[in-house]
Amino acid sequence: MESKGLVKAVKPQPKKNLWKPEEDLVLKTYIETHGEGNWATVSKNSGLKRGGKSCRLRWKNYLRPNIKRGEMSEQEEDLIIRMHKLLGNRWSLIAGRLPGRTDNEIKNYWNTHLSKRHNGSKRKSVDYTSNHHEQKKKIRSSNSEIGPSKSSTCIEETTLVVRNEEEEDRNNINSWMDGIHRSFNCDTDYPTLVPENYNATFLFDDEPFITYLDSFLLVEELGFGWSGEEANSLMQVESCPNHVTGDFY
DNA sequence: AATGTTCCCAACCGCGAGAGT
DNA sequence: GACTCTCGCGGTTGGGAACAT
Q1: Domain boundary among A146, A180, A209
Q2: Where is each HTH myb-type domain found (predicted)?
Q3: C1' nearest to CA of A152: which nucleotide?
Q4: pLDDT tens for residues A97-133?
Q5: Which of A222, A230, A227 has its CA nearest to residue A200?
Q6: DSSP code at position A102
Q7: Which of A46, A62, A185, A242 could form a disulfide with A30 if both were Cys (CB 3.0 to 4.6 A apart)?
Q8: Domain of A93?
Q9: Which nucleotide's C1' sits nearest to the alpha carbon of A132?
């Protein structure tokens, strides 16, 4: 039996195992040499005393090339808020729309900066009534009802190509796009939006439901000069509750 | 200066999905 | 079909910095 005093005298081992720079270097070198994947063997082969999950997380959230660190721009913040309003806590999907940002980073940013500000308008993508595991089940099953999903993973890179004949409007779009996601690289058979005047193409490599939501978001954000009605009819969304309203530009 | 409190965020955990056998 | 393994997701934890008293 241990007395309280004795327990207190023993310095507790830190529960968090922060990555050291030398470990980062080993992991980075290993992945640059062998490539990503099969994380279970990474720790064995690289000599790191870390689990595969830990290695994966460290690479994905910190060491991966093109990771954008530092403060969120106003545009990024705005996009997070809007996406969260539409998608709820689906951080990986939101992160997919913010190149260089990780789901963990966005989740943390929301929890520390934005959730308080937007507490009044707590809105989730499904009607949650039980614990989070139940919630996840609901999200997954609701998605499968909506349509087939190519993959459960988030889009690593989402790309939007905007080709505009009119210089002025192109500048409008580009100025908004600056700092958020200038180039999209999507390839799917899902709603392809090609407005007559704009020759803009939205192609998404993701769940159909999300595709629709994205389309709303982007139509609303980019303001393609459509009225809400025009946009709705273009996108054939009569069954979707999130109709675009109002006029743009 | 010392102590207490709050905030931030990297890392951990448990779970489900999908692939392979 | 049952089982195992790997991967990715979202929620939570806890160390430490920043701030307040």
Answers
A1: A146
A2: 11-63, 64-118
A3: B17
A4: 888 899 899 988 988 888 766 654 332 333 322 333 3
A5: A222
A6: -
A7: A46
A8: 74-146
A9: C11
